[in-house]
Amino acid sequence: MQKTFTLFQLFIVSFALINYFDRIEKIYFALKSFVYGGLFAAIYVLLNIDLDNIRRFGDVLGNENTIGMIIATSSIFSLSFYLYSHKFKWILPLPLFITIVLLTGSRKATIFLMLGFLFIVFMKNKSNISQLLKTLFITTLIIVIFIFAVFSIEIFYNIIGQRLENLYYYLSSGETSEGSIISRARMTSYGFDWFLSKPLLGYGIDNYRVLYGNTFFEAKYSHNNFIELLVGVGIVGLFLYLMYYLGAIKNLIFNKNQITQDIRYSLLYVIFGYFALSSAMVFYDSKHITFILFISTSYTIVNNRENKKQKKLDSEEKL
């Protein structure tokens, strides 16, 4: 019941945001706030790091994976603002963002961050081949240094490097000694079996943890967005969720405006990136991705309105 109430609150707040973000300047302000929020979070994590106790950091603010993804998302927006505005202030937080993402030990956030940088750089320069090759070379070089640091610097290797190795071995051979990977594979398997028992409407929101607790005497969520939704609200609920989620992606792909490409590409990557990671995390009830989804809806509405105005002006000039 608590989860249902949380989702209801998210919907009300997000619906209000759609009506509030009626100008592109307000949307820019919202995304810049994500960068500033990520910066404050990164600084807070940094100030609370205890180097005498090497482990995954970030739990002072919540789940390490969640904090890693939030700061990685801030990084995507920050890089995008820099590439399109060329204002140095937007690139300044990136070294700190990258460092904290690594120190959270989140594989998802690390991969999301690296691929996001490549995507934003590619989309920014795709119309200029020489500039694209130059920028991609520099970005790839930075990522190579980034990977070298992960596997060569002891603190990074102990926190994230070993976890990336374990993931690689599991994906390539199907075998691993890491407990979290084994546990999550089991969670997905059991979750799919529970879904098959009540495929249409499921067991109710957030009831995966109840079923898992009844079986293993420890209530846990599934770490898989698809499984969590299938078990909770069945095919019907998953379909309704995906209808809006994939609709947001479609609108961003086809809603073009040269002036606001930085917003469009960064929103598109973040929303699609989360979707691509659905099998590795639960985010249907996440506040930040829900707000980003509704911000993308506001962007589409505002952009459509501006495009119509421009077409009207163009037609009047021809007359």
Distance between the termini: 60 Å
Mean pLDDT: 91
Instruction: Summarize the helix and strand pattern as letters.
Output: HHHHHHHHHHHH
Per DSSP, what share of the residues sits in E-state strands of 2 or more residues? under 5%
Which structural class do you get from the secondary structure elements? mainly alpha
Dominant shape = globular
Helix content: over 70%
Unreliable sequence segments: none
Main beta-sheet annotation: none
Helix tally equals 12
Cα-atom radius of gyration: 21 Å
Q: How many independent structural domains?
A: 1
* DSSP E strands, number: 0
Structure description:
With 319 residues, the chain is mainly α. The chain has one domain. Helix 2 packs antiparallel against helix 12, helix 6 packs across helix 7 and helix 8 crosses helix 10.
What is the gist of this entry?
The protein has 319 residues and is mainly α. It has helices spanning 2-20, 24-47, 64-85, 94-104, 107-125, 129-152, 154-173, 179-197, 208-216, 225-254, 261-276, 287-318.
Quick tags:
319 residues; mainly alpha; 12 helices; 77% helix; 0% strand; globular; WaaL-like; O-antigen ligase family protein
Please render the helix and strand layout as text.
Layout: H1 2-20, H2 24-47, H3 64-85, H4 94-104, H5 107-125, H6 129-152, H7 154-173, H8 179-197, H9 208-216, H10 225-254, H11 261-276, H12 287-318
Helix pairs in contact: 1-12, 2-3, 2-12, 3-4, 3-5, 3-11, 5-6, 5-11, 6-7, 8-10, 10-11, 10-12, 11-12
